[in-house]
TrEMBL record:
SMART domains: HTH_ARAC
Domain HTH araC/xylS-type residues, every copy: 216-315
Entry protein name: HTH araC/xylS-type domain-containing protein
GO molecular function annotations of the record: DNA-binding transcription factor activity; transcription cis-regulatory region binding
Record keywords, A-Z: DNA-binding, Transcription, Transcription regulation
Gene Ontology, cellular component aspect: cytosol
PANTHER family the UniProt entry points to: HTH-TYPE TRANSCRIPTIONAL REGULATOR GADX, HTH-TYPE TRANSCRIPTIONAL REGULATOR VQSM
Length: 321
């Protein structure tokens, strides 16, 4: 596991680790398994800094063509844009974005699969990689940086602000690092890496999308946009390069429909909300899932699970104690 071993050598508390074959390549471990690994590392060692340090020291060349593209970038902004644009070649079911707002820029990251939780230290690892790129441009300077995390502070098992040396907020909708937008223009140190033609990465992205089942692609888009914008069949169809009519036909051919995909995503996300945000009311969760009336959500959840949202939440609470 590139970047992790050096921080685990002296941690005798780690007794169960992936075999050598699983550590051979960055794409050799399923996402859910890697998330469990990162959580287990922190739980066993009681050292919340390990995932962050592993990301900050990760050899980007181990990412293959994407690592070459990042290492050959001339500026911080170009390197981050390549990481974001081609991240799906490394990891499925993920929403990662580079955004600008006034004089600040941000990279946000979250796993879309609502069945994967906790996932706190996977986020630390990924944002650690982002920090590595930023520090290359700043030559190690670390000022006016801010973080946000999905998890609550007590779930992170340590003083995260002290680890990342920056202010942090918790209980956010995504994991994010914010920094002055001027950093995007900083030149990266010259390397021996030859200039990289990213067109082959673009072709790989296109090929991967074509090979991904349509229901899976649509599910990821729905999970990405729940609680952030309107869920519209026509917009998703355009994003996938087809008409709404073609999307409906292809979904029918796969034994599904847009409404079925939407309902399944909403219900899975509802369970996630119950687990992660116990302080929110049923009505608030219904709004987050795109229901105008919480009664509609209650009926839909009962059809899906066989019990009411209130009863399901009560069951979760009883098993948590």
């Amino acid at each position: 596991m590139n970047g992790w071993d050096s921080f685990l050598e002296d941690k005798a508390a780690i007794t169960a680790r992936p075999c050598a074959a699983e550590l051979a390549a960055p794409d050799s471990m399923p996402l859910a398994e890697f998330v469990r690994f990162s959580e287990d590392v922190v739980r066993r060692t009681r050292d919340v800094a390990i995932p962050w340090l592993a990301g900050g020291n990760y050899d980007l060349a181990a990412l293959g063509p994407l690592g070459d593209a990042i290492n050959s970038a001339g500026r911080v902004g170009s390197a981050l844009r390549r990481l974001v644009d081609y991240f799906s070649l490394l990891q499925d079911c993920t929403d990662i974005r580079l955004a600008l707002e006034d004089d600040m820029a941000s990279v946000s990251y979250r796993i879309l699969d609502p069945d994967i939780w906790p996932r706190h230290h996977d986020a630390m690892f990924t944002l650690g990689i982002v920090s590595q790129i930023l520090k290359r441009g700043t030559r190690g300077h670390w000022d006016k940086i801010e973080f946000a995390f999905e998890a609550e502070s007590h779930e992170m098992r340590g003083d995260i602000g002290k680890v990342v040396c920056a202010p942090c907020t918790f209980g956010a909708d995504t994991n994010q690092i914010r920094f002055p937008a001027a950093m995007l223009d900083l030149a990266l140190p010259a390397t021996q890496q030859a200039a990289c033609d990213v067109r082959h990465l673009t072709r790989s992205i296109v090929t991967k999308r074509r090979e991904t089942p349509l229901v899976d692609r649509l599910s990821q888009m729905v999970l990405r946009d729940l609680n952030s914008c309107a869920i519209e069949q026509e917009r998703f169809a355009r994003e996938m390069g087809m008409s709404s009519r073609t999307l409906r036909r292809k979904l029918t051919e796969q034994g599904s429909s847009f409404q079925q995909v939407l309902d399944e995503c909403r219900m899975r996300q509802a369970v996630f909300e119950f687990r992660v945000r116990p302080d929110l009311s049923i009505a608030q969760i219904a709004l987050r899932l795109g229901y105008a009336e919480h009664s509609n959500f209650t009926r839909a959840f009962h059809r899906w699970s066989g019990i009411s949202p209130q009863a399901y939440r009560a069951q979760l609470a009883s098993t948590a104690h």
